[in-house]
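Amino Acid Chain and Its Fold in Token Form
===========================================
Structure side: the spatial fold of the chain, written down as a series of whole-number tokens.
Position: the record begins directly beneath this header, with no further notes in between.
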Amino acid sequence: KVKSNNLDVKVESELETEEKGVEQESTRESDSNILDVSSDYPREKHISIQRHLADLEKLANLKEDEKKPCPLCPEEKLKACYSHKLHRHLQNLHWKVSVEFEGYRMCICHLPCHPVKPNLAGDQTLSKMGAHYHCIICSATITRRTDMISHINRHVNKGETESRFVTVPAPKSSQVLKELATDVQVLPNYSTPQKTDSYFNPKMKLNRQLIFCALAVLAEERKPIECLDAFGATGIMGLQWAKHLRSAVKVTINDCNENSVTMIRENCHLNKMKVKLDATEEDNGEAMGDGEENTDTIEVTRMDANVIMHLRAFDFIHLDPFGTSVNYLDSAFRNVRNLGIVSLTSTDTSSLYAKAQHVALRHYGCNIVRTEYYKELGARMVIAAVTRAAARCNKGIEVLLAVALEHFVLVVVRVLRGPSTADDSAKKIRYLIHCQWCEERIFQKQGNMVEENSYQQLPCDCHGSMPGKTAVALGPLWSGSLFNTGFLRRMLIEAVQYGLDEAQPLLKTLVCEAECTTSKHFSTHSPSDENKQEECGVYIKTANTSAESYLVPGKRKSDEVIRNAAKRQKSENSAEHPAFYYNIHRHSIRGMNMPKLNKFLNYLSEAGYRVSRTHFDPMGVRTNAPLAQFKTVLMKYSTPTYTGGQAEGPSHRPGDAQPGEQARAAADGKADNADFLQDDKSAVAAALFTKDCPAPCAAD
């Protein structure tokens, strides 16, 4: 027993000494790591990373009488050589193709420190050694110079620029930007999505102003309203809502990124607002003004957008994810209140604008091709997805606004609760028949019966005159109206009230497009203001309406109001704007000069058709005229373009030319007025020699 006890004591003492040794070694390693982090930048860098060319030459230990090898190349690539040749080698091959970062040069390295792929025979020693760069921050090896520059930029975007051994991001410097009297603090890399915690796009200013106007219109209908910015980022949009609408809205800004939530809280304090976070209210007393009572409180949450929309009900929801928003539509319509508004911004323009058709089929379930009206096609595709998501929740929609610009598609819809409204909205989703020869288009007729010949629905006769199949079926798409004129007019009033200069011209264009009129007939007041008091089943507060006609928030509409709204929608269907538009350049006649766009709109209007310009295309014409009549009017008022000797030299107007020049112009046939050239040459010559000729002036 004594011997066994002694053995146990010896084993325990040996184990204790071993544990102490391991602890000492671990503490030494941790101390060495701490020294590495706190040491001067950089520490233990690769020999290919130098500040000056002279430092690189010191590694080679150049001597005039001795041959020295290159420190960055193996002997198989460059044998030992004299100093003058080695100097040129280091300068031309390594130094000139280096990547510069904070005073250091990451020169290209040919040493076998980068693993290379074996050849076909499996012999790696005989294969070519891969040239590469060593990262100064994370010691990674990258082969291409462009990839190395991108790799360094990613480190800079993440803030990892202090040392190659640093694992914790360095403190990030921020800057303050201002928009609509709202200050936001952002990081230097705020313009790179998915790589920053404070993404802020200045190009989306117009988008934010349109959403603000829509929320301001809703705030006039009922107060207070609960609104949600599901993807806050910097919180700029929610801050603008709370700062200008104040007590009319209760703003909730959500983001799933912890760093973004921290940035949103800082921006709230920067704009002198209270922050409500995790059911506690943080009051920034220092931010208050002298004697100013700040009642603006913003709730900041950190959770997934689908989760917060499932848990809580809102009157106004805005979705602006990076890319498509179809993943959040079911959650958005699940708890949105009756007569509330859902706005969504889609930035996946590659799929919406038919550049990635397989992605559009995967996300939206639509078959599309590139057409002349591709922007409106993308907007109708988004609305169709919104309609289906709302119908699954027994809700219908009324489209208030649909805007498709260069880098985003904005859709604003009002939610109408009830299965009947959901059915009415779902019936407006149809397929579109598009002719690929003349680009004529028409929505398929309603009904479940199979058409024997779908080409008969098209107004054109391309199928009979052209070989093969000439048309394709696109969709399913939204076939209803894209705008609500009364809502747009009220948005324009709010834009003028809050001084939103960029949104006002676009809203004026949208009002003209919704009414299908030209800008010269535009007026700030609707011709039937008395009939516009009810809009989408919502009673608008006007001076002539009584207090009993106002909508009480939180209560369902009565059956009578629903029937009146349905009748109102049926009566306004005839006044809806025509679907899609024509590009005047796409349908121009070869060898003819087109008239000016505004003049062409007047010609179509005089022919008895509704016509307007469209924001989708600066050269687009929205009209209810068929394509054949559109081309007929375009052909009628186009002037021929003359080639050969007639087209040479500048063209002169008859009234501006001198008498001598008029004679030469009449002799050479250089007159610019095509109408008179087509009539009679003798009459044209007589008119040209007459100083005050009434006929050309009347024609001009």
Q: What stands out?
A: DSSP finds 23 helices and 26 strands in the chain. Residues 49 and 236 are 42 Å apart (CA to CA).
